[in-house]
Amino acid sequence: MKTDKNAPKTYYTLRFMHDDAMHRRGEKMLNAKNELRIGHSHECDLRLPNATPTEDTTLAVIVPDEGGESWRLVRLSPYRQHDVRVNGMPVAHVHRLADGDRIGFEGQRQELQFNIRHDDMYNSQGLVMKTSMPRWTIALLVAVPVILFAVLFAMMRNANAQLMDDSLADKAKESVYKLQADSVWLVAISNGDTIKLRSHSFSADNQTTIGTAFLTSDSMLITARHCLEPWLNDPVAPTVSDTTELSSLPVRWAMVAETANQNEGREVMGLVTFVSLWKDGDNNAPVARLRSTDFTMNKTRDEIIETGDYDHELFWRSILARHRRTDMTLGDIAWMKVSPHGLGLPQSVIRRANGNDLKQTLAKTGRKLYFMGFPSSQERAFEKCDDELRQPVRIGDDGLPDAVLAHNGDIRPGFSGGPVMIADGGTAIVVGVVSVVDQVSDQRKYSVPVTEIDRK
């Protein structure tokens, strides 16, 4: 008798019941071959994650009975750590599989559901076979191109809405300022009053620090905290045994003040920085002069580092990420409520993002980010650049991001404190404040989510 090559052939499927390192829950493997080997070995047809990396084992094989209408599961490894189970019961050597059986393995969370099929998906040659095309299939073939076109059109519109054109960039630029630290005082604090002890001009020893600040539409003037307290990111201070090892006078004062505060158990000394704001291209006079004490800062994440020696105990306050404490850099933000009209500043078009904005727009990598700032290598020269989000934003239980934003971008020292913005339908939305800027432009940079202002 001649065999009909187009006759449907009985076959089986194996459905993965859990996620693992190699498979997703719900994935199926269709098989109509003579046998199927299961295990950790590269030679297996179905590979499982290996809990013991040194092993390269084939655990079991599924073989068809004569006629190819039923199948047996054969255990291949004699070791207990390689136990094979069907429906929770161990297989000593061979088990005849039935439709709906669940196959499991020792040390593996993954289970495989075995199902027998007899339809027109496979013929005797192992090929997909369709004798006629159902009407629903024809309708689907017509509908798919239309749906794809609509999806692509919507994606293109959404992508265009995420681009910041020159007009929007120029409007946002009007609210971005160069921030220059001019001088610092060492002060004593008594009953809420500050008494000047000593003063230092940054320009006197060519240590003028340059950063960026920006104004938002809700009248918040925002910058990075280390632009106001430039000694905070000093890499040497946490390692010294004596303040004389510190060449920078403000860094030395900062250690003296923190040591006094820790010894007294309250704030008895501090530093006050005097800063000026400058507009791009205006070298005549700053638009405003401010004090660091005018700004609000969240110091609850600061790390107090004990240094010095046995005879001379010293303390240092740091916001640098140490010992994997990436939350420390979330403290690198400072803000104050201002009156733009009172300072002679134009109303800003930059909207400050909230927690929902960040959750919706930065949930996936690839979102376009825009940066503006004043690189310190050029005298009051404004620059802008863009990049993509490198890691999805991580939202904490309070609905606010609990980690810094990761990105690259051609940003250099001087961009610190500047806005990290997205464009959304013609609106510039600030989502972060540039914090960590490496001298090497191709290394990753980090920004503090602007929602730290809203943290209670």
Description of the structure:
With 456 residues, the chain is an alpha+beta fold. The protein has 6 helices and 28 strands. It has helices at residues 135-161, 166-173, 225-228, 249-264, 340-343, 355-361; strands at residues 8-16, 28-31, 36-39, 46-47, 58-64, 71-75, 84-86, 89-90, 94-96, 102-105, 111-123, 176-190, 193-201, 209-215, 220-223, 269-278, 288-291, 296-297, 303-308, 313-318, 334-337, 350-352, 368-373, 383-388, 405-407, 419-424, 427-436, 445-449. Strands 12, 13, 14, 15, 16, 17, 18 and 21 form an 8-stranded antiparallel beta sheet that branches. Strand 10 (102-105) and strand 11 form a beta hairpin. The longest helix is centred in the first third of the chain and has 27 residues, at 135-161. The chain is elongated and about 95 Å long.
Poorly predicted residue ranges: 125-133
Radius of gyration: 33 Å
Residues in helix, %: 10-25%
Distance between the termini: 83 Å
Report the strand count. 28
Describe the secondary-structure layout.
Layout: E1 8-16, E2 28-31, E3 36-39, E4 46-47, E5 58-64, E6 71-75, E7 84-86, E8 89-90, E9 94-96, E10 102-105, E11 111-123, H1 135-161, H2 166-173, E12 176-190, E13 193-201, E14 209-215, E15 220-223, H3 225-228, H4 249-264, E16 269-278, E17 288-291, E18 296-297, E19 303-308, E20 313-318, E21 334-337, H5 340-343, E22 350-352, H6 355-361, E23 368-373, E24 383-388, E25 405-407, E26 419-424, E27 427-436, E28 445-449
Parallel strand pairs: 3-4, 22-27
Antiparallel strand pairs: 1-2, 1-11, 3-5, 5-6, 6-9, 7-8, 7-10, 10-11, 12-13, 12-14, 12-16, 14-15, 15-21, 16-17, 18-21, 19-20, 23-24, 23-26, 25-28, 26-27, 27-28
